[in-house]
Amino acid sequence: MNKYPTEPLKLWKKAKELREQYYMNYARAKEKGGIRWSGSAWALDAIPAGLGEDVYSLTGEPYAAAVAHDRKFAKECMDAAEAYGFARDLCSYMRIYWGGMHLNKYAFGGEFPKPDFVFQTQICCSHSKWYQHVAKEEKIPEFYLDVGVGPYKDMTDARLDYVANQLHDGIAFVEKASGRKFDDELFIKAVKNEMRSTSRWADICALNKVKPAPLDEKTMYSLYVLCTLSKSAQWCADFMDELYEEVKDRVARGIAAVPNETIRLMTDTQPPWSFLKIFRYLETYGAVSIGSLYTFALEGIWEEKADGTWGGRTLPWDKGIEIKDRDTAVRLYADWNLSKPQWQHFYDPTIKSDMMLRIIKEWQVDGVMLHLNRGCEGLSVGIMENRLAIAKSGTPVMTFEGNMGDEREFDEVRTQARVDAFMEQLGVRRQAA
Q: What is this structure's pTM?
C-alpha cells in the first residue's frame, strides 16, 4: 500500500539525451576537426578543456559501465581482453575497455574511436596501467597525474604544490600533444563549471536526508553519471542546477521515489550493472536505497557545515576568492579534487567507515548492503573493516558478492535469498502489489 505520492522525474529524458550526446560527440569529433582524448572519470578534465570548445573525452569507467549493461557485448569485450592475455581478476571496466579497443567495436555503433592523447589521473591501482596499454596500442602520447598524496585532513602546502606543479606540466603536455595554444579563460571557466557541478551534486544528494526520499539510488546512477562524463562542461553544471531545483521541489511537495517507503538502506561501491533490478526487488519490501558513499562522492565534493552536517562544498567565489589567473585556478582546482571523499579511503579504511557512519546517521539509514565487488579493488579495499565498524555501531549490515562489470561473478538467486534473509532481520515483509 502506497503511503506517499510519487511521480516521474521531469529531467529524466534530458539526462538520457545529454549522456547519448556525449558519446556521439566523441565518436564524431573528427568530422568537425575536433580533439579526442581518453582518461578516467577522475581525470581532471578542465585541463584539456583549455584547448578549445571542440574537445571531447571518453571517460573509461562510465563507458565500461554502459557496456556492462549489455551482457552479450560486455562478455565479448572481456573474452577479447582475456584472449589477449589479461587475467580475469583485473578491473572489469579496464578489461571491457581494452576488449572493445582490440575488437575495434564501439558500444554506440561503428569502430572504436581513437583518442588523440591520454590524460589520466592516478590514484586507483589500475588507472595508469589501463591507459598505458591504450597509449601503446593506439600509438598516442600519454600523461599521468599522481594525486596519491595522502588524506585531505593531512594536507600540507608541499603536497598541494606537488599536484599543482603536475597540473602545470599537464598544460604543457596537452599543448604539445594537440598542437594548440592553451586558453586560460576557457580553463578557468571549466574549473568553475566543475566546482559548480560537483558541489551541486552533493547538495542534491543531501536533499535525500528527508523522509520520504525524493530520489532512489537506481535513479541516481543515471544522474551522477553526467559528472563522470564531463563535469567541467557548462551543460553538466547547468543540468545539476536544474536538477537541484526539481529535487528541492519534490521535497517541498513530499514526492517520494518509492511510494511505499518503509525502511531506508545504503549500499556501497559500484553495483552489478547488469542486475540493477535488485533495487526494484528491494522496493517490494518498501525498502529504498537512499544512495551510498559511492553515489554521493564519486564526483560529489562535500564539506562539514557550521551545524556539523554534510553538504556541498562552498564555492571559492562565494567565500570572496576570485579566480582570475592560471596559477590561482590550478591551485584551487588541485585542492578541490584532493578533498574528494572517494579518494580518502585509499589511505585508511577507518576514514571510509567514519564517512559511512555519518551517512547512516544523517540520512536515517536502517540497514546497509555491502557489495563485495570483485571487479574493483580500489573501491572495495578495506570493505570488511567497514563492515565491522557498521556492525559495531549497531546498524544491521549484509554483504553480497558480485562484480560491477562481469556478470559471471554474480549469482542472482543467491543474492535475492540473502536480501530476503536481511529483510527478515530488519522486520519487514514483502508488500502486496
A: 0.97
